[in-house]
Structure formats: C-alpha cells, structure tokens
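Hi everyone,

Forwarding the result from last night's run.
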Amino acid sequence: MIIGVESLGFNQIVCGQKNLQNKHGGFKQFCDGAVRFTHAYAPSTMSQASIASILTAKNPQENGLWDNGNSFIPAETEIISELALKKGFKTAFFSGGAPILKKSGLGQGFEKFDDKISLTPKKIFRGAKNNFQLFLKWREKYKEKFFSLIYLNDLLFPNQTTKNNAGEVRNLSYQSQLSEIDESLGFLIKKMKQQKIWDSTTVILVGLNGQSSTQPHRSAVQPLNLFSQNLHVPFFIKPSHKKRDLPINWTINKNVSLTDLGATLFDLLEAPLSSPPRRLLDISSLKSVLISPQVTWDEDRLILLESAWPIWRGLSNSQLALKKGHFLIVYNNPIEIYNSLIDQNESTKLQKKDPLYAKLANEAQNYFNQKGYSQNIPPAKQSLNKISLAKQIWSNPGQISKRSYKSLRKLVRNMPWDDQLSGWLAKIALSKNHWNTLDNIGAKTQNPFWSYVARLNQGKPTQLFMKKCFSLFTYTYQSFKKPNIKECPDELLIKAVDWTLEKDRFKKNIKQARFLRLYNESLTSEKINAYNFTIGLRWDTDIQKPKGPLLADLFLALPKNKAYLKQLKKLIKD
C-alpha cells in the first residue's frame, strides 16, 4: 500500500517532536515502526509526475508523464500496478481529487480507480478518512493480496473545517489538516490491525511535494520551486513482517528519489526492471535497507529534480536541478550551487571562486549536455505577478485586503490587454457594491453589462439595449419577449429571469430550485478555477477562468431584484 500526500514537506513530520506524541496518531506509528528516509526527494514539483515515477521507476523525462495535465505514460511502458495484477494481486487506486484523476491515465493496471466526488461549492475534495474507509471496504470485500495507492490532497485546503476524534472543530489552518491526516492514518492502522492485515502488508507513506503556503524563495509560485523546502519530502516504508517479529525502526540518511521507490516496488514483486536507453542517472532499489540499514547504492550519485510546469503553462521551458550529496545544483544561467549541509535554507550561493563550484558545475553541465537539456529560462515577471496576486485575491475573496484590492487595480492599469484581470476587478467590485469602480472598468473594457448595472445602482442615466442577453436586463413586466437560447446562450441567466418573473407560487418554487441547482454548479466551477490560482495553477483546469461576474449575478444585482439577491444569499449560506 502506498499513501501519497500532496503538500507534505519533510519538516511537517519530524519524529521525536512533541506534536507527534499522540500514540494513536499515524505519524508516530510510522516513526516508531518503519524505515525512515531522511533525505528523500520528489523528482518533480508536479504530483502526477511524481506518482508516475513511483509506478514506473522512471524519471518524468523517461516515462512521458511530466506534468499535471494531458501528458501520459506510453502504453508500452511497464507499470508496477499492471505487473501486480498479472501476479494475482487485487489492485485499487483511491484519489481525494484533483490533480490525480482517472483521466490522467494513472489508472493502468488498477481494477478499481475511485475518484468519484460529489462536488459542491463547500467541498471540492474527498478527505483522508473517507479515502481510507473506501479502501477498507474494498479490501474487506476481496480479502486477497492487494496492491493499492491512496492519494490525499487535504493539505491543499487549510480553510476546510475539520474535527478531531472528540468531535471538536479545529482552527482553519494547514496544521489542522495535518492533524486530520494524522488521526485518519491512526484510524487506518487500527482498522488494518483489526482486519489482521497490518503486519503482513508493506505500507509506504510519502510526501509528493512541500507545503504550498510557505514560499520564501525567489520562486514566485510553488510549482517553480526546486529547492529542498518543496522537494525534500518525508518517506517511510513499514515492511511486511510476521506478527511475532519486532517492528523495524531505523533511519537512512543518504539521498534517495521517489523514482528509487518505484525500483523498490519492482524488486519487492520480483519483477525485472528495464532501463531506458541513454539513462545516465542511477536508479536503485531500496529493498536491502528494509532488512539492514546498510546502504548499497552510490551515496554521491546525481538525482534529477525538475518542474515541467512552465512549459505546460506556456510560460517558459522545463526548470531543472540536480541533487548530489548535500549540494543542490540549479541549472540557471549561470549555474547556482547551494550547500544544504551548512545552509539549510539554501539561501547563499556557492561562490564561483570556490574550488567545489567548478567541479560540481562541470559535472552537472556534462550531464545536461549529454541529455540535450537547455538551461532554465525564468517565466515573464508579469505572469508570475498575476499568479501571485491571484493567490491573495482568491484565497478568501469575501475578505480581500485593501492592499490586494489596490494591487489588482494597479495591475489592471499596467496590463489593460488582460481581460481576465479586468474581469476579476469587476467581480470584486460587484461583490463589494463598488459601483463607481464597476462603471469605470465597464467603460474601459466596453462591457455594457457592467456599466449598466453600476449606473442603475447609482441612479445615473443608463443607455438601453434590446438585443440578445441584454434584453433580459431591461425587460418590463408589461412588455417582455424572452430571447431563445440561440439569441442568449446563457442558461443560468435565463433561469434567473424565469424565477423572478414567475407569479404562480408553486411554479416559482420549482423555477427557484432549477436555478439554484444550476447556480450551485456554476459556483463550484468558479471556485475550482479560482482555487487553482491559489495553489499555483497545479490543476488541469482552464486558466482563462474565472473571468468576470456571472451574468446571473449581474442580473440579480439590479435594484429591482434586491429581494431575490437577499433570498439567494440565504439559500447559498444554508
């Protein structure tokens, strides 16, 4: 069993600290009864790519799946889940949600791939405990040897309410979600022991990248961060053993990659592991240290770290780095080298005059030249500024700070060609009833809907249009002809108008329910797209969304619809 956790950096599980003294928590049980790898590195900032490396024992550049988008593992590539299936294992994958979804192609070899989640504006992922319960139910049904992977993305949602085992609501924070995972792991271990499968199962707990909310480095967004704070991850293997045996508990302090974990899985299943042509980096099975803490691989081998996020998002090329011993080598121009042993934050570059610099830089350059890789080109500053500001805005859009609001207005002035930024400003102005701002941005972008609603709310003269969707804003009860869907292809707006126009009480309730159902779907989509910006555009959604205000929201903001808007807010809150 593999449990992969999004945004779980190495410093979040420090064995021996007071916050891990809960004997029923899962983290402490892994600390006390597993092999702990203290220098483990994810091969990519993209969790989908890291999981692909675990399943194939190949780096992202070798297996073809290098981002969280539509890249995929070629059909001819051997995947450990397919081999497990051939060897008689029952196989299942349980995902808490984006970015690890069935469409990624990671379901090869898994008889069951469960990513079904009932999305709502208040819930856009499936929590750790629910995923574990699904696994336990599946395992109880078959009661055979199994190979399973569970993906947890709880840590992406620090503002999601959680409760502890006593039923007490925790504070909204990253730490609260971490505690939720800890307790859920404890629940899983307890249930596996009750099913008498804990001892006989090899269980692997691993982080897939670091905490997204802490980025002091010059990497403006998490997916660009190749430093240890983002790619140094916790990694535990609890080997299978007989019940009478004492649990294994030792640490391995030499560098390993999650790609090595893939090689280990092949080794554990006694399956041959093919090596790609022109492989220049050593990938090693870790199976030997599950028996003895004696390391058998080259301690100073190069480990490749990468981010294909910039090329996926059309901003730049893939960003590359290498780890060698306690040195981090970033393939910038010029090459940057950091000594992590004496500089844990990797904030001070090794000077070029240092004899070590030339030796390490030459070795790295030689590798990159042989592979034909280009040096890192940083994405445009304006694009990164937009993403960085979006994180501030959409983390809590209902309580946007004055500073963020001011920054957005400034960015709109500096980037007048960016319609999405103008849309964000209009959306926030509408939510705050800042009618003058909405009027001005409507005039500058020639958006008659924004200006019309703003001016009407200010009691100013407004120009009337009777074409397409606009006629829905300017109707009167005495004279109104509703446009058809071809004339106004906005079903949500039409349903909002149907609701407000209906006189019959019974029919009005039906039309309200129809509108509310479609409105909730729209809100969910808006929330997902907005939230994607807060986590550095790591999900495979349309990055041109969210745009401006929904036409239905603008329609309900008309003075004549004040009562309906108030009613809608109460319905959404409930």
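DSSP finds 19 helices and 15 strands in the chain.

Cheers,
N.
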